[in-house]
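Suppose you are handed a protein chain with no further information: no name, no annotation, nothing but its sequence. What can you learn? This example shows the usual starting point.
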Amino acid sequence: MSSDSQAFEGSWRRQEFAGLDFKDTRLTERLIRIADALSAHPVSAIRAACQDWSAVKAAYRFFDNEKVSEAALLAPHFQQTTQRMRSQERVFAIQDTTYLDYTDHPSTQGLGPIRTRAQNRRGFVKHTTLAVRGSGVPLGCLTDNVWVRDASDTRDSKPKTFQERESYKWIQALSETQTRTPEGVEVITVCDREADIYEFFTQAKDTPFVIRAAENRKSQDAYGTLKTLMKHTPVAGGLTLEVPARQDHPARQADLHVRFAQTRLKPPQRSRTPQTENLPDVDTYIVEVREPNPPEGVPPLHWVLLTNVKVNTYAEALERIHWYTHRWHIEVYFKVLKSGTKVEQARLQTKDRLLRYIALVSVIAWRLYWLTLFNRHAPDTECTHILTENQWKALYATTHKTCTLPTQTPTVRQATVGIAKLGGFLGRKSDGMPGVTVLWRGWQRLTDISNTWSLFHQNSHKPTSETQH
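A reasonable first move is to predict its three-dimensional structure. Written in structure tokens, the prediction is:
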């Protein structure tokens, strides 16, 4: 069985947290039981997921235990992610930041400001690096840092070193990614505009990256800036891109112009400090994607991508654009974390309890997202790669309203559609493949159904096979 499919065996929690070291075997066993409960009921609160009061109290004690650290809890998952990467030639390390909002839980202690001061929201900042294979299947988290902003930071005008600034999170995650990259695997870091930081370029060195530009940086060429350089760069070719629906704008196709160029960036002019005065020039390639004729009332699509991987041909420019499109995976991962595990509804009342809880459900959210994408990667493999025997039998009997099981094990595609139908997916020809929302709803129902199936058949005859009729 492949390393991907092993993650969904019945023992996936033990495998994912193998090597966990809390210096107390009882805590390790408790973690596995809590992970079992939360994975089986991802959208449920702790009380509903654990089901009996003794298990609920044990879960609360676990998240309140000072021996449990987020670093120790996540370390085995990082190791397993690295192990899954070893079988790949190329992996995308996608960085992004999200906010976990607990403003509606006023009794929770230790929260910090998030978003803007005017919005007056409170919670945590979470910065994650998600490892994704070329086919889009998420391999796990490579880095995950969650912290509370200091409210005084917004009022303190005292200059900070670069390492003290929040923007340092991008360089820190890049450094951790470099440390956890297996030998022989090409890891390409992908980031949005917030990572357009000059120190990021110098830290990356030989680490491939694609970043969406935010600054009109100065360049050592006849044009002086990136914007002017690209304005004088001829169109290399066209590209049609599927644009998903956003806010008030429906999904559409965008016809784009593609340009590419090469230049050398100058360091930014800042107040001289030991960290900035010796910054070197950086060689970079630029790929611009621009929509010349957007629909009326729709803002044009426009990306300027910076990369340290050569772009000398139109085909290479298209490949860098394709690399950047992998960035949406981390947005979906955050959606699974917030909507699929309801992480922001946890009422654990203190910062430290919540940090431990967030670390655990971050791993569970990866697992839920993995299920969705594995179907697209290997739809025709047997569903035993993602389900136990009891699970697929209970699923088949429920969705087909029969006790007669097939002689051939259903495929991953068939099982995924079945799980989605439990979550409300209709499966019409026009519906396409199910998304993450119906899958996590269906997964919760499947857990209850398969548990009932196991109890019912424990001491009874096995269901009749089609070959016996």
